Every structure is written in C-alpha cells, then in structure tokens.
Amino acid sequence: MHACMKLFLRFALGMVAALSLATPVAAATTTVRIVHLELDPDGRYDETRLFFRGLAQPLGRPFAGAEVALREARFVGQAIGVEFALERASGADAKALVAAVERLNKDGVRFFLIDAPGAVVAEVSKAARGRELLLFNVSAPDDALRQAQCQPNLLHTLPNDAMRADALAQFLVSKKWRSVLLLEGPRPEDRLQADAFERAAKRFGLKIAERKPFVLSNDPRQRDQGNVALLTAGADHDVVFVADSDGEFARSVPYRTVRSRPVVGAEGLAAAAWSWAWERHGAPQLNARLEKHAARKMADPDWAAWMAVKAVVEAVVRTQNAPFAALAKYLKGEEITLDGFKGNRLGFRAWDNQLRQPVLLATHNAVIERAPIAGFLHPTNNLDTLGFDQRDSRCAF
Amino acid sequence: MIRSRSTAALHALALSVVLAAGAAAAKDTGYVFVSSENDHAVTVLDSKTWQVVKTIATGQRPRDMRLSPDRMALYVIASKGNRVDVIDIAQLKLTHSIPVGEDPEMFDLSPDGKRLYVSNEEDAQVSVIDVASRKPLAQIEVGEEPEGVRLSPDGKRLYATSEVANMVHVIDTATNKILANVVVANRPRRFAMTPDGGEVWVTSELGGQVTVLDGVSNKVKAKVTFTPKGFRADDVTPVGIAMTRDGKTAFVTLGRANHVAVVDVASRKVQDYVLVGNRAWGATLNRDESLLFVANGLSDDISIVDARSRKVLRSVPVGRVPHTVVIDD
C-alpha cells in the first residue's frame, strides 16, 4: 500500500433506517456496493475558491450528490431484493487511488465514482482497463478523456468542455450575437475551455473578434492583461467569453467592460450541467433534497455524482441485478432510460461513454435557456448536437 | 393561532349553512374550473360562452382539483401553500383550507368524501387527511417524489406513483400499509382505472408509455406505446390520462409531443392522435363523456376535444400554466 495513501471507508448513513420504513415486499439479499473515490486534497474544492461561487463551479464535494441518489434508491432496491451501499475512499494522488480501486475491485466492488481532475482520472482509468468494473467520472470536464484518453470502462456523467461550449455557441447564434471577444486565463484548464469555445464557434458560425490572455495581477507592467477595461477596449464585439476555470478573474469582468456587452462563459451566463434555479421536471424537489442533506445548493459535480449512482441503480433494477457483463452492456446501451430531471431521456453515447444530456444556460439565479436550442437539429437525437458526435469522435476503445 | 382557528371554525359553520341553503342552486352549474399554477388562482369559465366568469385566488401553486361526491365543493391542492383549498361552487368562493403536509401535488377523495389521500412530493409520503376535522390520520412513507394517487373503485386500495423510484406503490387503505411495490417504466405520473379496478393504467413520462397493471395480482400485464406523426420517441412524454366510465377508451396526453392519444382499452391499440397545445398534461372528460378537456401547460390554454369525432372544437385561453380542468356540468 502506498505510503501517502489515506483511505477512508464509510458506509452511507440512513440505509438501514430507510429500509425499515415500509413493509418489506422482498427481503434484501444482495448488496450492490458503489465506491466514491476522491482526490484529497483537491485544489478545486479549496475554501478560497469555493468562496467565489462561480457559475458552473462546484459548491462542495460531489459525494453529497451520490448520497442523495442512494437515498432515492431505497424503495426500488427493496422491490428487487437488493441493498445499495455507498462507500467513500480517498487518496492523495493517482497512485493511491489506483491502489484503492485494485483492492476494492478484488473485494468485489464493481462500481466506482471518481471525483478528481482530468489528469488523475486519465491515470486511474488507464490502470483500471480490463478490470471488471465501471468508473464514472463526475468532475473532470476534459475533452481528452472523451477522445484520445477514452477507456471502455470509463463513463462520464458530467458534460465535457465541448458540450458546454456548443450549448453556449448555439445560444449566441440564436441571439445573433455572432462576434465574440475571447478572454483566456493562464491555467491549462482555461486554455482547454478557450479551445473548446473556438471549436464551437467554428462549428456554429460565430466569429472570434480577438483572443486575449488575461492575468490576475495589479502589476502596472501587465496592466494590458490585468485590466478589464483595457482588455475589452479593442475591436468591437457582441459578447465577451471568459475562459476561467478558477473564477476569481471572471467575477470582476461584468460591468467593467468598456462597451455595454454581455459576459458569458465563466460568468454572466454559463453553460452548466445543473442549476439550483432550474424549476422544471422535478428539479425543485431534487434541489431541496440536496439542500436538506448538505446544507448548501446543488452544483454540476453534485448532479453528475447523483446521476452516476442513479445510472447504476437503474441498470441493476432493469436487469434484475444481472451478471456484470450483461449489466454493463445494458447500462451503456441504447435501451436505458435515465432521468436527469432535465426533461429528456438520457443515456450514454456508444462511441465515447459520455452521457448525452441537455445543458442549462444559467445566470446566478435563473435558467435562461436549455440547450440544444430549438432549431439545432440532428438526424437521430438532437442532444448529439452538443459535444462530440460519432463522426467527431477520436475515441477507439 | 387561536384567532385563526376560530375564524376557520366560523367559516366552516358559514359553509355548512350555505351548503344547506343553496343546495339546489349549486347543482350542475355548467362551470369549467381550471387551476393555474403560476397565477395562484382557479379560473372559472362558462361552458356556453367560454368567457371567464370569475378568477378565484387560491393558495400558492394550485394544481390537482376534484369535486366533492355531492358536487357542491371543489377541492384544490395548493402545492406551495401546503394545503387543500375548498371552493364553494354555489358562491364561487374559497371557504376554507385543509392543511395537508409539505409540497402536496395530486390527491384523491374516498368515495364517501371523508378522507383525502395526498402525495407530498418533498417528504416522500402519502398523507391521509380527515376532511371533517382537517387533521392528518396517517402518513405513509413511499418512494421519492410521489405524484399520482388514485383509489380503487371500491376504495380498498390506494395506488401512488414515485417519479424517482419508478414504482407504483399499492397501499391497503384499511391498514395504510404498502401491499406491493411494482417497478414500471421511468417517471410514472398518473392513473386511470377500469370500472371494476381490474386494470390500472399508469403513464410514464420519460418511459414514453403507459404500463398496464393487473389490479388483483399487481403484476405488469402490458404496455402501450405511442407514435404520433412527426415526433421522435423521446418527444413522447405521457402524463395525463382519462378513461371512459365503461372502461373502453382511454385518452392519454403526450406532453412534449403536443397530442392526445385515443386508446382502445381492450386491444391496447391507439386509434387516433389529436393535436392539442404545448405540453399537454391534464385530461378530463365531461359528465356525458362527449367532450375531453386538455390543459396545455406551456401555451396557457385548454383544448376542448369532441370525444367522438376526435376533433378539437376550440382552444380557450386561461391563466398561466394551467394544470387541471374540472367540469361541473
């Protein structure tokens, strides 16, 4: 066992209590274990960063979302004689998480959620290749994980950068806000977001007026990159897109622009997997459940973790807890109906294991639109106008 | 607290006096009632002129509605008001409210009108409420987000859907205990039943189908799927359902597909699709079953369909986000 590995296992509370609530119809016989892996520490959840409450940013660890989904599974598990159990394991680096997966998989665990940045997810999923397990990525939006780094047993419930960029691009096209000033931060993730947006702009016919790097600095020698007025004073544009994975700079962009132009991307209007302000398709109830459970609002990774547990539960229920191969086939197959509370039937894309789903275009307290935007059509499923369609896929399992 | 209680008691007294005095006047008014979720009101239409007779303010987010067995009162659920409002039909006035627990959505009334069975979405329970005392008699734990609740014709069994657990709970009304949990297609919503209770039809919004349950064995017997022209399977989101009293024909609203399907119950075959408004949910037949009323949640109107010719006779604009239509004809 790796020296720096910290491993905590914790059975989710409430299962035993929940199961005793109703008359048992079928006695629970089998336990289906789901392990939530997380990198700890993970800079994305630093208190200082969470403080910014950036749009489409986490508001806390997504384990809370997984716990809510587990509670939702109590009745249905009972009906088919299955008890679902959620455990939490953490490690300080990819090596530690790989060791945890190996140990737990040997112990019979088949279903894992992973809450870690893209590079860690890539390493863990590569090591898990060939094992009898499914790994659900709930917090890494990296396009590469769906393309060159894809793995047959790695699934993604969080929308990737390309899906979010396409959603925003569709919205801008529908508004005829066609010319975009692109501001890009210094982090590698900022660059990935900016690249994804450029790709979407090309795909949907938006014009990038300028692409400019920004820095978080008051240094007068860097003021052309640190001052929003100076950054936005160049060529005219309809809208400002901010690629900022951290959110500290982005929050100061609206109202500091030279021209009266809306801000999108990391601030203003963001493409998101989820929004606490979403009010349709049962969303208020789900939001209330998470708030009650975690004493905070629900954000993208929470939704993705919730969705991953729901996917496992759905596959177990519909296949009557079939042997792993049949269950995994059903879970990834065309037939599965997943309910993400976003109005559409969801399922995983066969070519890259990404969950196809609507993307919400949200401000800090309202959902303005839901992508795919009306009029963006696809020959088989309009949800595949977002992100990598089969013909865009460079994934070879 | 004391004051409001005594006020409520006074209202109840006043209501009983009015009911006794105005019994003849209230019968068969010809009014059509439509609950409007975002207006916090019930719109009353005259079924001859289709003009708005009155708009009655209710608690927050009115949704499901039902007439009392004597058709003198209209019960309206106010989801965000956590109560059922009682409207006196003779006076077109809200007379009193019954507290029914958190976030109620749909309900049914016992055949004798004495008990309300209410789904409480946020608390994952079904509440049994005594109408006379306005007190809860029992709370039954069910799967998350219970929605449709429906009593069997003999009142002995209660069916409730859980939208999240994808189940129908079958509850014994004598003991308030769950008899069976039946897994059905995804996001089950509402019920219809054959007159003998032998078949229970439940719509599944995301599963895009109706699941037919055997009312005796609680087993899934069949499913009905829909293929309205010009819509993909994923656009078919059945929610509302109404069945004729003879148990021969069912009308199923298809939500995003903007159609009502007319289904032959015995053969499970879809006979017709009728184009209605946006996000068609609530479906109600009038008393002689000549007309079907459909609430279109996203076009803020109702469609009135001739149940025989299956043609839309007219659409009538109502309040914002119409949920349920009740006809007192």
TrEMBL record, chain B:
<dbReference type="InterPro" id="IPR015943">
    <property type="entry name" value="WD40/YVTN_repeat-like_dom_sf"/>
</dbReference>
<dbReference type="InterPro" id="IPR011045">
    <property type="entry name" value="N2O_reductase_N"/>
</dbReference>
<dbReference type="InterPro" id="IPR019405">
    <property type="entry name" value="Lactonase_7-beta_prop"/>
</dbReference>
<feature type="signal peptide">
    <location>
        <begin position="1"/>
        <end position="26"/>
    </location>
</feature>
<dbReference type="InterPro" id="IPR022456">
    <property type="entry name" value="PQQ_b_propeller"/>
</dbReference>
<dbReference type="InterPro" id="IPR051200">
    <property type="entry name" value="Host-pathogen_enzymatic-act"/>
</dbReference>
<dbReference type="InterPro" id="IPR011964">
    <property type="entry name" value="YVTN_b-propeller_repeat"/>
</dbReference>
<dbReference type="Pfam" id="PF10282">
    <property type="entry name" value="Lactonase"/>
</dbReference>
<protein>
    <submittedName>
        <fullName>PQQ-dependent catabolism-associated beta-propeller protein</fullName>
    </submittedName>
</protein>
<keyword id="KW-0732">Signal</keyword>
<dbReference type="InterPro" id="IPR048433">
    <property type="entry name" value="YNCE-like_beta-prop"/>
</dbReference>
<feature type="domain" description="YNCE-like beta-propeller">
    <location>
        <begin position="71"/>
        <end position="149"/>
    </location>
</feature>
<dbReference type="Pfam" id="PF21783">
    <property type="entry name" value="YNCE"/>
</dbReference>
